[in-house]
Every structure is written in C-alpha cells, then in structure tokens.
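Handout, section B. The chain below has 257 residues.
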Amino acid sequence: LQTYIITPQCPFTYQRLEVELLFPRLQLKKVSIPGRCLDSDLDNFDLSSLSFGFTGISFSPIGAKFKATINEKGGNLDLSTIISPTTVAINIEKSKITSNFLNFIIKKKSLLEGTFNLECHATYKNRRFETGQITLKSSNFGVSGQNLQGLNLPGLDIGTLLLKGNFASNNTFEIKTLTVGNEKSPLMANFSGNVYLNSVDLGSSPVAINGSIKFTQTMQNNFPILNLFFGGKKLNEQGFYTIQIDGVLNSPKPKIL
C-alpha cells in the first residue's frame, strides 16, 4: 500500500496509482479513507477506485472543467465541476450512492441502510451555496437498530424515500419535499423546511422543519415507547401526527404538536 497525505490529519492509503497525460487524470485503486478525515471516530471508508482529471475549458460559465469519479461496492458517484476564480459549478447526474457513503459523510456509524439515486446541480461561491437543486431517491431505504439511552431499538425496513430541495443565496437548503415510506411501510412521513448550512461543520447546521408522521398499528405494538411520545396527541384527518423539528442536523429536537 502507498500512503497519500492531504493533511497530517488525513492520510489515506491506496494500492495502485495510474496517470494519464493527454487530458491530465489521476486514478487511485483500492482507496481507504480514515474517519478522522471528517474529524470522526468512524471506521475507514473503502473505495474500489477514485479518479480526478481535467476535461477541458468551459465558456458558459467560463472556467476549467474537471471530473471526479468515486466507485465503491454497490455505488458510483460522477461529479463534474467548472472552476473559475470566484465560483464552482457542481453537477452530479445519474449517480448511485450507498448507505456506507452517507453514513460516512454524516458521521453516523451504520445508521442508514439502502442505496440512493442522487442528482445535484449547484453553484458554490465564497464558501457557500448560491443556487442549486438536489434530488435523492431510494426504494430500499431503512434505519438500522440503535441503542437510545440504554433502550435497544430494532431496525426498520421503510422502503421508499424521496428528497427534493433547493439551495438559496443565503446559504440555506430549502427542503421542498421529504417523503419517507408508503402505504406498505411501517411508517409514513412528510416534511418540509429549511437547513441553515454551516460551511465549517455540516452536522452543526440549524434546522427548522415541519411535517407529519403516521405509524401502522403493528409498529405501535412493536414499539411501546411510541406511546410515551405520541400518547394523547391529536391526529389530523388522515391519521398523521404533526411534528416540528428544531436543533441541528446531528442532534435534531422533534416536538409533537
């Protein structure tokens, strides 16, 4: 193995390096990125390959074009960028990422399960997103079993997930639609609201989200703890509880209204 050091805090390893000179491109095989690269105690994130290269000049917007490709077991992320002195245009199309990738990014070990289709078109300027859209979809979304204050909670196979949102000029991510589950799922939920992005630490981004959630009777029977939170709360005409979520991304604070 060879070690490549971006910073002393982030030494990642790779097995083989390939270089192309016509359009300058680097490709690393069997890459392992330590969790401390994101200032976390997570296990290493392993990639089949990681490549980055120059692909030409863009005239609208004006800048240099680059493409990065990340391949992991069960997923691939194709990221195209146009870099100018003041702005970075980001384009992700028809990419599939795994829960391992998302868990690594959000610094939550084995929280999410499934594979996700991702598309993103955004403009980044002065360390913040100016404009853009994101769509994230899954048909096999789930949450793994967790220990919550000494209480062991089993995992949930939820099924469908759809997230659509926009970046606003004030560095806010506007959640237009976040739909979790369907009629066959143990729960169904719909949310919308804002995430006020922290450019230094994404997990510390404040959130202001409103939504509704509904549980099947089977889930209520299997999770008696739900009665502690939702017992006595009013349901709307469709049988959903109304929820307000504050706090930050890494530590949201739900409130049942």
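Note. The CA atoms of residues 81 and 91 lie 6 Å apart. Compare this with the example in section A.
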